[in-house]
Amino acid sequence: MTFMMKRLTKKLCFYFVLAILLVCLFNVLTSKNGDTEIDLKQYDEIFKTYYTYSNDSDLNGPKVSMDNSNLVRKLREKFLVKPIEENKGRRTRYNLIDMSLIDPSMGQAAEIAKIIDYTKGGFFIECGALDGETRSNTLYFERYYGWVGLLIEADPLNFVKMLKKGRRAYLSPTCLSVNPYPEIVSFLQRSNMGRIANDEVVEDEVISDDYGKKKSPIVNVQCFPFYTYLLALNITVIDYFSLDVEGSELNVLKTIPFDKINIRTLSVEFFHVKEGDDGVRTYLEDKGYIVTGKVTRQDRLANDYIFAKPSALTQNLSFYVT
Residue 293 pLDDT more than 70? Predict the structure, then answer.
């Protein structure tokens, strides 16, 4: 009798554990499906809100100056998502894929940290922000040292992901203009390799092979000059500007009125720039910047110059490798 009871107990325990596992599996599967539905719904909402343009022809084109008050208002009211607000004295937690990764950049953040005193906070702008986490050059400063800033990402597929990360920065579903005026451009949706379609750049051979076999999706995106963002945010000092837009970097830099603002440090990707790395370097050196470092990787996930104003340096010039 005792033996039969033991066998019965073991079976009941087995079925009980199996039932728990099945319930857990069901919850996982249904939650994933629910997330997918929410993603699709949110994408549709984001697209209708930020990527459907009408009655904007009078605020685009060469006749609209970058400091036009109506343009500044348009950007501020329609194309800036405010940072995550504090909730009952506690900030909303980050929702990152890898919470244990301290610095997701490919080395750019470490180079900037050599230049300025980053521990006291600062203001950043990151264009080509992707999803706000993957290879982010600014997340380290924001998450651990209280920096604030602006993340600009043109691709709606990436922007929807970025909205969920809990970043404590302004978010903008737009692109930096390659001209000193606002315009709507055709944007190639290529995940982390998206770019303005009509700008002449140097394509990576691997990219050309991969995307040459299929036509990249294209979406219309509103672009604003760099200076317009600063006016919309009432900012004149940028401690760190991260620029990675797959080949349009130099054209973007040429639109910036450096005499009106103070960009203390920059990381600029040069690999796809038509004029090459020397073109980027020469232009910013002529603006008074010095090269303090260069970040490159064999897998081409980083090909950046690090620039700084001499006044921003915390070490003697000889400390930096140029």
Answer: yes
Task: Domain 53-200+212-315: give its CATH superfamily.
Answer: Vaccinia Virus protein VP39 (3.40.50.150)
How do beta strands 265-269 and 240-243 pair? parallel
Angle at which helix 2-50 crosses helix 156-163, to 10 degrees, equals 130
State residue 145's pLDDT score: 97
pTM of the model: 0.84
The tens digit of pLDDT for each residue in 122-157 reads: 999 999 999 999 999 999 999 999 999 999 999 999
Residue 283 has pLDDT above 60, yes or no: yes
> Residue ranges of the domains in the chain?
53-200+212-315
Q: Is 219 in contact with 157 (CB distance < 8 Å)?
A: no
311 HSE (CA, 13 A, CB side): 5
Structure tokens at 51: 């990527």
Q: How far is CA 146 from CA 168, 227, 308, in A?
A: 9, 24, 21
Report whether 126 contacts 137 (CB < 8 A).
yes
